[in-house]
Amino acid sequence: MASTSDIRNGLCIKYNHDIYKIIEFLHVKPGKGPAFVRTKLKSLTNGKVLDNTFSAGHKIDEVRVETHEYQFLYAEGDLYNFMHTESYEQIQLNKAILDAPDLLKEGTTVKVIINAETEAPLSVDMPASVILEVTYSEPGVKGNTSTNATKPATVETGATVNVPLFINEGDKIKIDTATSSYMERVKE
Question: Where would you say this protein principally sits, based on its record (predicted)?
Fold first, then answer.
């Protein structure tokens, strides 16, 4: 059993007969009344996100998890195939437990969180950012912008990302996997 002082991002807990992963948390100490912890929980079975507030000192059921590195091989419909980087054992995971499946390029290394008691994969942690090549983008017209004008661009995995007007087809861009947003152009 853990308490609210042990809450951190990425912690997996049992709550309401389900397993949740803490995405965000905030310890709040109001001037009047007891302290509490405001959290954002993501269900590892169905992917739904809910907001919850725990009172300070509340006991929570922590789930013992192990993290292993896997390499993304290929996708078959809604099933994504991964290979363990050390034992070369392959697993198939459903698209629902992936955070950003449309940004997953073949060969990308991810961290798979596995429940230590049941050996069941719970979630997949993507790298903080990925570098992908732009395959289609409308040409940007110079001079008709005020500030921060963007256009949609399709990257090699099929995802669509809003990018600045100076990005063209063939450019490699860095994308934040948490928000699926453009970060910078990459020169190689």
Answer: cytoplasm
Residue 87 in tokens: 């034992």
Over residues 109-131, the mean pLDDT reads 87
Q: Name residue 129's beta-bridge partners.
A: 176
Q: So what's the pLDDT on residue 173?
A: 93
Q: Does residue 42 contact residue 20 with C-beta atoms inside 8 Å?
A: yes
Yes or no: say if 15 and 61 are a contact pair by the CB < 8 Å rule: yes
Instruction: Tell me which DSSP letter residue 98 carries.
Output: B
- Is the pLDDT at 133 greater than 80? The verdict is yes
Q: CA 46, CA 27: separation in Å to the nearest integer?
A: 27
Is residue 132 within 8 A of residue 173, CB to CB? The reply is yes
